[in-house]
Amino acid sequence: MSEAVVIATGGFTANVPARMKIDGRLSADIHTSANPYVLLWDGADGDGIRLAQALGGAVTEGFGLQLLPIGGGRVLDYAGADLYVNDEGRRFVNEAAPRRELASAILALPDKRFWVITDQQSRKNATLGPKLLNGIVKKSPDIRSMAREMGIRPDVLERTIADYNRAADAKFDPEFGKSVFTQRISEPPFYWGRERIYVHTTLDGIRTDHQARVLDRSGRPIDGLFAAGETVGGVFGKDRLGGMGLTNCIVMGRMAGGCGRWRKV
Length: 265
Ligand SMILES: Cc1cc2nc3c(=O)[nH]c(=O)nc-3n(C[C@H](O)[C@H](O)[C@H](O)COP(=O)(O)OP(=O)(O)OC[C@H]3O[C@@H](n4cnc5c(N)ncnc54)[C@H](O)[C@@H]3O)c2cc1C
Fold this sequence. Notes:
The model has no long low-confidence stretch (mean pLDDT 94). This protein has 265 residues and is α+β, with helices and mostly antiparallel strands. Strand 8 (213-215) and strand 9 (221-227) form a beta hairpin. It contains seven helices and nine strands; from the N terminus they run βααββαβαβααββββα. The chain has two domains: 5-67 and 199-257, FAD/NAD(P)-binding domain, CATH 3.50.50; 70-196, Succinate dehydrogenase/fumarate reductase flavoprotein, catalytic domain (Flavocytochrome C3, Chain A, domain 1), CATH 3.90.700.10. Flavin-adenine dinucleotide binds next to helix 7.
């Protein structure tokens, strides 16, 4: 018989009823950041959490989940060099706002989607090539032709970008209070694409202690049952710093693999 069972089945970002209990806006039309184009099967449905509960394990509540507006037309990994417009060609948010604030503004849009625009000067990430190839990001020689392809009135988009560039020059955005500007959006060609909000990470899950032992509802460890990774709740609190997910997986996975004890490998 095995010494222990370790649950490591990930979070529940793909479980629509479960995530809607946390935030009723997260209906099935909101995809996960792990599967943004729904081309794959997403196994993050919380199986392991239900398994732990069936064995008497407790789950955390109140930490919620994290949303991310990156996965479509955005090709930058930093703030200050792109702008977001709604389907009328108008800005609707401070693009450098914290993710929670961005998510609320995006979820309030009629179709919960928007356009991201940058220009030739910005430093694109490695997704640019594939996104251009499959049409997720497009390239236009001027603002008017970009607007026409988006189905936006060219004069409106021209005005929006002119206002944005005035704010970038002054480093003062009277409309939305943006203060992080690294450039104007003015050098053709312009790069643009559809962006949406995605369910990125769940922050609630199985309750464990610092030794990765699954706890029962009275806070006592369940013998031989461990959990690690995103299936565990409460590790980060109500938000998670970018890049910290795998640190948690490795540290607590190793702890669970050592059955709650550090082992030299
Ligand atoms: C787009 C994206 C980018 C990210 N970038 C970063 C980053 O740069 N740095 C960082 O630290 N973190 C990043 N993360 C977060 C990181 O990927 C997760 O924290 C990590 O993958 C969680 O690992 P896990 O093993 O707990 O769960 P998962 O990686 O979700 O693995 C769980 C596995 O269990 C399988 N499974 C589920 N149910 C069952 C079942 N019943 N039977 C058998 N198998 C099952 C699933 O299919 C899956 O393969 C990113 C996440 C996403 C979505």
